[in-house]
Amino acid sequence: MENLNDVSYFDQAIEDYKRGTTRMKEHLPEMTSSYFHFTEEAFKAGEIDKKNKQLMALAISIYAQDEYCIIYHTKGAVENGANETEVMETLAISAALGGGGSLCSSCYTCNGYIFPLPAKIPLIKLEGS
């Protein structure tokens, strides 16, 4: 991992999620393994490609206002070839269906994590750094 002083809020959120799922796996190994197997299968390319599955998951995450999933599926969509316009259209669809809460979550996604803004998002300072 990069220098802890340079970890963005978004990267930190993903790391927190991974730590939490690792801890859950220690206590509930069969359940976590089954869940992750299910999600891996669901996101495999089929009639719908991986990019579009990630965009659908992003829209649902925004509608549900699930911060970790918004970050995770935005990253997943881009890693599978989604461009900025495709992400923005996905955000618009979710906001159209979900109203103000989804619009706020959409704006959160637009804050430069994946597609850079002219001004950088401030990096968080971790305790002890």
Write a structural description:
- 67% of the residues lie in helices and 0% in strands.
- By secondary structure, the chain is mostly helical.
- The protein has a domain at 51-111: AhpD-like.
- The mean pLDDT is 82.
- GO terms for molecular function: peroxiredoxin activity.
- This is Possible carboxymuconolactone decarboxylase.
Pick out its properties.
67% helix, mainly alpha, 129 residues, 5 helices, AhpD-like
**Which class best fits the helix and strand makeup?**
mainly alpha
The total beta strand count reads 0
Please report the number of helical segments.
5
Shape: globular
Distance, first to last CA: 15 Å
Percent helix: 55-70%
Write the layout of secondary structure elements.
Blueprint lengths: L8 H19 L1 H14 L7 H15 L2 H13 L4 H26 L20
Helix pairs in contact: 1-2, 3-4, 3-5, 4-5
Summary, kept brief:
With 129 residues, this protein is an all-alpha fold. The chain is 67% helix and 0% strand.
